[in-house]
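User: I'm curious whether this sequence folds into something compact or stays loose and floppy. Could you predict its structure so I can see for myself?
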Amino acid sequence: MRSYQPDLTPPWKKSAPVPEVPAEPDLVVEEVSTGFCGAVIRCEKTAQGPTVTLEDRFGKHRVFPMEPRGFLLEGRVVTLVRPSAAAPTRPARTASGSVAVPGARARVARAGRIYVEGRHDAELVERVWGDDLRIEGVVVEYLEGIDDLPAIVRAFSPGPDARLGVLVDHLVPGSKESRIAEQVSDGYVLVVGHPYIDVWEAVKPSSVGIPAWPVIPRGQDWKTGVCRALAWPENTGAAWQRILSTVHSYRDLEPSLLGSMEHLIDFVTAPGSSPSD
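Assistant: Here's the prediction. I'll summarize afterward.
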């Protein structure tokens, strides 16, 4: 019969148990060995074991193994585990980062509108701000370019109850776009934009899985040039769907586009521009 052998390990050398925390999206943790701090983007099952992807405040992504005692949560050591798939919960926030309103019905459309340059712009806006826009009753339409914007604005007849917001690509000083914007801006029309040649560039390269957007020489079709530089098939429609599929929330977009869209939504929904009932 074996005799009892007491555990003589000093208490300070024993590993205290740590809590297991589900790696839910947007949970902010710090990886203990590198000090990398970020929000949980996703968990994945790999041949080497489960991993978690974190995004820091600069938009940088890092993938870490979900090892025991591998993370700090509010200064405390924890073990991250994969969230349970048995009981999915409604997301607390929309793709734009706004607080979700479960069960909310779309509001009757306002007289005001937001115009964007092209179909790709409209699809990107829908992907990220669609829930917010439906709740606010804001309709987004695309123009196929802004060369005729002054005539379009005159035909729209903006006013206190029908504000018009316009999102423009490549809105930089001295550009054709900036000169057109100066012709139409007034108290009931707001034209804002981003500095990129095309809305493709407003998607973070890290989200698309490329180091950076290529620089395309002048005189070349920009989208076709991007496809060539990235060794993608020269099908810009398919390339856009590839890019759009990587956009899951506002975190995948550059700040310049985020700020412009939030500004437009605030302008179109300002007090006094109530929806038509």
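Summary: The helical segments are 119-136, 149-156, 176-184, 205-208, 222-229, 236-244, 255-268. DSSP finds seven helices and eleven strands in the chain.
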